[in-house]
Amino acid sequence: MSAPILFALVAALVVWTPSWRRLRHVVTAVHEGGHALAAVLTGRRLGPIRLHRDASGLTTHRGLATGPGLSLTTAAGYPAPALAGLGAAALIERGWPLAVLWAALVAAVALMLRVRNLYGWLLLLVAVALLVAATRFLSAEQQGWCAHLLAWLLLLGAPRTVWELQRHRRHHHDHGSDADQLARQTRVPAFVWVALFGAITLGCLAAGGYLLLRPQ
97-112 and 79-93 helices cross at what angle (nearest 10)? Predict the structure, then answer.
């Protein structure tokens, strides 16, 4: 299966709302993983993580109530899937698609150890089982397809979540979003943070798409 066909397949699934509602769980898991990793790297105490049936999530952490550590942790969620997708694309471009699947497996196991609700734990258990099966039983060509599909899902799904963030803020006046929390923490308006998230995710999509689609 060629790279353009895999791209078109995932793009259709991300655009079509019924399939996106299911695929969004993957992007949400990486989003929460981004918060968790940033919390650990900035010295905050990581608490329970929850992944909900409606594809929302929550990562709790404790530490100073102000400062760069808090802001970096809050800001890490929306860029995380795009950056992970770009990293996956770079590995695929170098001829290491199996490394993408192993990295996803390690990340899923690490996240599962911090998840504290049953739905989130079962969701990650299914992901771990699928990734184990892919790494053990699929051919090298099929593993390459899986790596491409995962990379495209993260690259294409990340901008859609930012678009959904802004749409939700506009229609529901939600002041609990990551962008609104950052506005309170930094005094930089929320729409600036949304624009920054959009720029990062679209930039990663452009760079990752170039790596995955350019002729070998």
Answer: 150
For residue range 76-85, what is the model confidence (pLDDT) as tens digits? 999 999 999 9
Read off the pLDDT of residues 159-181 as tens digits, 9 standing for 90 and up.
Answer: 999 999 998 888 776 678 899 99
Domain edges within the chain = 3-213
**pTM higher than 0.90 for the full model?**
yes
Report how far residue 162's alpha carbon sits from residue 195's, in angstroms, rounded to the nearest whole number. 9
Distance CA 55, CA 32 (A): 11
Burial degree of 166 (CB within 10 A; 0-12, 13-18, 19+)? middle
Amino acid code (one letter) for 122: L
